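haha ok so turns out i had the wrong file open the whole time. this is the CORRECT one, sorry everyone. sequence first:
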Amino acid sequence: MFGSLFKAGRFLDAELEDWQLQAWAWLMRHRGGMAMISRTPLASPSREHFPPTEAVGEARAAHVFECVRRQMSMTDNDYPCRLEARTPPRADAQVGVFWVLESPGAVNGTFDIVEGQPVICYADSLVDQPMRLVATLAHELSHYLILDIEEAPPGGWEAHELATDLTVAYRGLGVFCANTAFSFEQHGDTFSQGWRSQRNGYLSPRSWAFAIAVFLALKGAPIDGAEPWLKGEVAGLTRAAGRYLAKNPHFLEPLRAIG
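then structure:
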């Protein structure tokens, strides 16, 4: 449906960009189309979408979970679910004297069906990292949201995790995953120092920027609406993706037709 529209000079790698647009179409066909996008706001780390709370620990995580569920239109009546905290083992790999690589998302959260009941688990360390907590909960809820879609996503079931990440953007929470997709920071203590790299989720920052730009363009919302909430690099990429889509409005025409 999309391949014949595209020429050289793509924002993403051609194969990945084709896949993402096809995955948007897949999601929209099965989970609400333009009607859903029109009523879904772009969520931000603000009081509007995440009211403050005095709760701590698991109660704080439960408060955030309810905020994420509300944003994703996943009420407890339609999507009953149990939330559990876990203390996972460290998954750091020492790949050099001054380099630690943390595994991508493996310890942040899980979604399972336990004795017929959906259960989402999150790493208890995320309670003090609200951006990553929201990203993790949104990703695991996205697994739940698309669980009963019988049609395989574009690329087959091997692309399921990528499609799950994209579902987060479709339900307006792309800012959180974009900001936590990759981090690179210095660390040190009394005995050592070096650099730590960490990936969360499956889409790259550039792919997240494109997804956010698609979401805003389909809503008819200004691209700079996301900018105050995005890290500098991702904000710049999102502006560039918005310009790219504005110059090529026909890219989104097949999506706009999915009511």
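The chain has one domain: 3-256.
again sry for the mixup
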